[in-house]
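Regression test case RT-17, inverse folding.

Input:
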């Protein structure tokens, strides 16, 4: 009886030791990224380092990138020398659209590069874009040239200087008698449309950058003065859409 109890105790101790050794070995292998492989020499087993599939790493990293969700809100800011304003045109369009869904930060930067915007802050709830300009801000209720998608456009500022409306520049605005019609910022264009792509303006030195960032100018010594008629063209901001249209025709004609 005593001999049987002794054997039972020894077997229990051996079993516990075996389990403990296996646990320790497995933990050591995982911690050091090792695996057991068969070999042709004694002791017929060896430790080797695990190989990591780079494709699996890339897939994991890509999966964990922050992406635009359906409920994500978009804010577009223009950072001028003297003021920060909002582009309400882009905010309204993209907050009502799903075109940016699932895009990452790098994809968003690529999407908006022709309009000069890059991601400033990004989460699944909100994305803030910024366009850093070297010029002073446009005054309230003014018209100026810019870029909408990949096309030259005429923007309008509201009473606070924020961008509230846009109309893509169409160089073919003529009446039946061949004379130029009055340019109506609110109406829809008729007839053959002749939009200007910024991709077609690369050869014009500095023009594309001026359209994207705003035409640079030095601030008046007396900042309280209204823009004089002869200063509108120098500063690239106009009191009427007709003047902005005439300026665009002269600036963009080949």
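Golden output:
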């Amino acid at each position: 009886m005593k001999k049987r109890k002794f054997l039972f105790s020894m077997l229990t101790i051996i079993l516990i030791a075996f389990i403990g050794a296996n646990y320790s070995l497995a933990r050591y292998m995982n911690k050091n990224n090792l695996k057991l492989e068969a070999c042709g020499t004694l002791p017929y087993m060896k430790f080797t380092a695990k190989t990591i599939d780079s494709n699996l790493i890339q897939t994991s990293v890509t999966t964990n990138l922050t992406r635009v969700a359906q409920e994500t809100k978009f804010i577009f800011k223009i950072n001028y020398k003297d003021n920060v304003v909002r582009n309400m045109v882009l905010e309204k369009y993209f907050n009502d659209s799903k075109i940016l869904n699932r895009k990452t930060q790098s994809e968003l930067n690529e999407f908006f590069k022709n309009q000069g915007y890059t991601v400033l802050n990004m989460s699944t709830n909100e994305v803030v874009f910024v366009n850093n300009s070297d010029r002073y801000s446009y005054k309230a209720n003014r018209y100026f040239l810019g870029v909408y998608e990949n096309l030259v456009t005429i923007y309008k500022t509201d009473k606070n200087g924020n961008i509230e409306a846009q109309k893509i520049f169409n160089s073919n605005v003529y009446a039946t008698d061949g004379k130029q019609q009055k340019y109506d910022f609110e109406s829809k264009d008729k007839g053959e449309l002749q939009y200007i792509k910024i991709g077609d303006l690369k050869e014009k030195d500095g023009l594309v950058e001026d359209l994207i960032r705003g035409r640079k100018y030095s601030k008046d010594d007396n900042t309280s003065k209204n823009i004089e008629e002869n200063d509108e063209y120098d500063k690239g901001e106009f009191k009427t859409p007709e003047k902005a249209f005439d300026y665009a025709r002269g600036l963009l004609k080949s």
